[in-house]
Amino acid sequence: MAYANKVQLITYIDRLGGSDTQALHSVLRDNFPNTFGGVHLLPFYYPMDGEDAGFDPIDHTALDNRLGSWDDVQALGQDYDLMADMIVNHMSAQSNPFKDVLAKGQDSEFWDLFLTKGKVFPDGATEEDIAKIYRPRPTSPFTTLSVGDSGQTEDFWTTFTSNQIDVDVTSQQGKDYLERILQAFAQNNIKLIRLDAAGYAIKQAGTSCFMMEETFEFIQNLSKRANELGMTCLVEIHSYHKIQCEIARRCDLVYDFALPPLVLHSLINQDFAPLYTWLEMAPKNCITVLDTHDGIGIVDVGAEGDQPGLLTPDQINTLVDQIHANCDGESRKATGAAASNVDLYQVNCSFYSALGSDDYKYLLARAIQFFAPGTPQVYYGGLLALENDMDLLAKTAVGRDINRPYLNPEQVQEAAQKPVVQALLKLCELRNSNACFDGEYSQALNADGYTMAWTQGSETITLTIALADLQATIVSGDDVFPLVDWLN
């Protein structure tokens, strides 16, 4: 394992109390010493403030100079295991290579770098062909643009937005492009790579163009190359839970994206059976999250065709309605057709707001996450137990901005003193310091309670939750910690 099994932070460089990498480093040292073993730096490439908050890079190998330099990233990497996003599926339409393609068409030296509809469907695509393509958003997978001086048009593959042009990762230019990114990471102290949207990278006519056998092979080959350079790959894919299990068998790490909605269901309904069922089969080589820069995933617990999900359709509908109710309808203003960047599978809401800003339930949710198999990541907004940022949502009209606040140093310092945040930091300390979490996981569910346990040799640490009132207790050796006491 190339990284420490300790709590990791997910953050933008410029949104957690500072404007650049050095400032973030100072904020972490001053406010959260020894809290995190690793830091996932959300896209810091040029430009960091593109259409999709850095996920549409113009230059994937360049740190946006407003955030500092690669030297600053290397310095941060001396204190933390750093994770960076590798956006394998696309780059910005504003990039120089794509501008050259628009100017010269097939005469451009970069023509082979980008994917067009004609490359996948040389004989044309039927309505049936298009209908088979798995879509993360309700828009067309193609954008028609004029190329060259002749007035000719091309249908470019744009899985996400018209400003995110898909890369042809099967071409030599595409392979060289990915290699340059890997080299930049390896040379600058990056230990973990989050493969963003990797499930969409391979397209073939007559298929869903999502998580096919060829996609698995692509991910495996890319991960192998990263491993050769001393890095570990985390595959980021929202999908049916059994697909996640299959992915986990064939890669370094996967996200446990089923965990957030299952934890919410458990605490809202005092029903831990679906969570228990999932953790009996869930991958152990995973990164666990409750919140990220995206919304709360729903597809991860839903059905796939006639295969049942971890929650029933009625349970999912009830859960989504309750999230909306818990935050007084704020999430409705940020989800679906109510805001841009429409995703088909997410509810946009901070996790703290999704639990009705209930300090105890929120701390219990984190305890469940920290006891679940995998290495836990905590999003910066979740670290500070922040509610929905309605002002930022109103300013940008981008749904996911409801959970992407900009914080100055004073706001960070003030939020860090809240009892729920101090309790969370105590929980982080326990998770980081107890050797049992490197041991064997077990769980038990009966009519009265749910227990999660880790055992290393003769030592065991347990989290037991009473189903009647959700009162939880952590026991480690002779030490007994009622969770509610940590809030007092």
CATH topology of the largest domain: TIM Barrel
Strand content: 15-25%
Termini distance? 37 Å
Which spans have pLDDT < 50 for at least 5 consecutive residues?
Answer: none
Q: What share of residues is helical? A: 25-40%
Structural class, by secondary structure, is: alpha/beta
CATH uppermost class of the largest domain: Alpha Beta
CATH level-4 homologous superfamily of the largest domain: Glycosidases
The CATH architecture of the largest domain can be given as: Alpha-Beta Barrel
Oligomer: single chain
Number of helices: 17
| Biggest pleated sheet | 8 strands, parallel, barrel
Number of strands: 21
Return the domain count: 2
Q: Report the principal-axis shape.
A: globular
Side-by-side strand order of the widest sheet: 1-2-5-10-11-12-13-16
What average pLDDT do the residues reach? 94
Describe the structure.
- The protein has helices at residues 21-31, 70-76, 96-104, 117-120, 127-132, 172-186, 213-228, 241-248, 259-269, 273-281, 313-326, 351-354, 359-371, 380-383, 390-396, 409-416, 419-433, and strands spanning 8-11, 38-41, 45-46, 59-63, 81-87, 90-92, 142-146, 153-157, 164-166, 190-196, 232-236, 253-256, 286-288, 296-297, 346-347, 375-379, 440-445, 449-456, 459-466, 472-476, 479-482.
- The protein is α/β, with parallel strands linked by helices.
- It has two domains: 8-88 and 172-437, Alpha-Beta Barrel (TIM Barrel), CATH 3.20.20.80; 96-166, Oligo-1,6-glucosidase, domain 2, CATH 3.90.400.
- It has an eight-stranded parallel barrel with strand order 1-2-5-10-11-12-13-16.
- Strand 7 and strand 8 form a beta hairpin.
- The longest helix is centred in the middle third of the chain and has 16 residues, at 213-228.
- The mean pLDDT is 94.
